[in-house]
Write a structure and sequence with these properties.
The protein has helices spanning 14-25, 37-48, 64-78, 101-129, 150-170, 188-193, 198-206, 216-227, 256-261, and strands spanning 5-9, 29-34, 54-58, 83-86, 132-137, 175-182, 238-241. It has 272 residues and is of the alpha/beta class. Helix 1 (14-25) packs across helix 8, helix 3 packs parallel to helix 4 (101-129) and helix 4 runs parallel beside helix 5.
Amino acid sequence: MKAKIALITGAAAGIGRAIATRFAAEGASLVLVDKDAVGVQDLAGTLAAQDTAVEVIVGSVAEEETLRRAVARAEERFGRLDILVNNAYDAVHRPVTELTADEWHYTLEVCLTAVFYGVKHAIPIMQRQRSGAIVNLSSVNSLVAAPGRPAYTAAKGAIAALTLQLAVEYGRDGIRTNAIRPGFTVTEDVERTILVTAAERQAAIESCPMRRLGRPEDIAAAALFLASDEAVYVNGAVLTVDGGASALWPATLVRPSLRQQAGLPPLPLAQE
């Protein structure tokens, strides 16, 4: 990643912060985008103290102007843009019958339309360079569904499809577009809102064949590979990074005989 210029959205925390930290450690210069001014400035200060060249754009990725400014800043400061990581995420989770139109549109704007804004403004620079790598963050929810996530699931499925479209359309310009499907990943937000009991944590561990929880650094390692020259012939891939959870037959987690074969403890009997 030496001498590479990378733009990362949603960089203030979680997976985005891990990607930015890993890219910086490998020698990249960064443009960090986030609406959390305090969080993104904190990260920028930490990385700058480690001799990483960093620019910060504070704003919502749901607004095209934020991405336009970010790409323009990369070109103004560094003269090029080698990598775009579309990571920013926010979503309203409710069943479709309870979701308001505003909540639906907001989730799609942040999760999906922001990817469109990013590639719309980054690709012309990459075309002039005849090179570039785009990494989009999809989700295992593009493969399997969970209750109460209609807008998020729709957006992440569309990101996977858009990745294929971009790979086909711009591969001839030397631009590679790939995506990552993270599985259950323990970010600060997940710790605060989901893993609030020992039972919840144990269930998350049992649902993964590797018997551990995913970490933001696991996703950052995949992003590093896809963005680097080591993946020079990888284009149009959607890489699942979930410890094998999406490959697991769901019955394994509930049927007593299969739980035994998998080395899982018996479930408590349901109360009538």
